[in-house]
Amino acid sequence: QVQLVESGGGLVQPGGSLRLSCAASGTIFSAYGMAWYRQAPGKERELVAHISNGGYTYYVDSVKGRFTISRDNAKNTVYLQMNSLKPEDTAVYYCNTFPRNRWDWGKGTLVTVSS
After folding, report:
1. What is the spatial distance between Cα 44 and Cα 101, in angstroms, rounded to a whole number?
2. 26-45: per-residue pLDDT in tens?
3. What average pLDDT is seen over the chain?
4. Which pLDDT value is given to residue 63?
5. CB–CB of 78/71 below 8 Å?
6. Quick check: bond before 99 cis, omega within 30?
């Protein structure tokens, strides 16, 4: 049973930074593309960024130039460095495989951007 554990969220002022981590256990992590998703209050979960097992990255337009996705296969962990945060980035952030979400969703980590 694969477990995903997201961490690193918190309260940050507009313009601030956070680094999220997602650790996967019980799987050959390096075989899969991975992605970060987010769900804002009252909205559906949406893709934020993904990274292939070869390191190719993609970002949705709203975070391009501000967020960076990376992975450490030795640690079975994917990261999301978030800079220049905006109030509209407020959401619960999740990770999963990409393009197909193969594993049960974790609890996510809450990011709140507010002054």
Report:
1. 15
2. 777 888 999 999 999 999 99
3. 95
4. 98
5. yes
6. yes
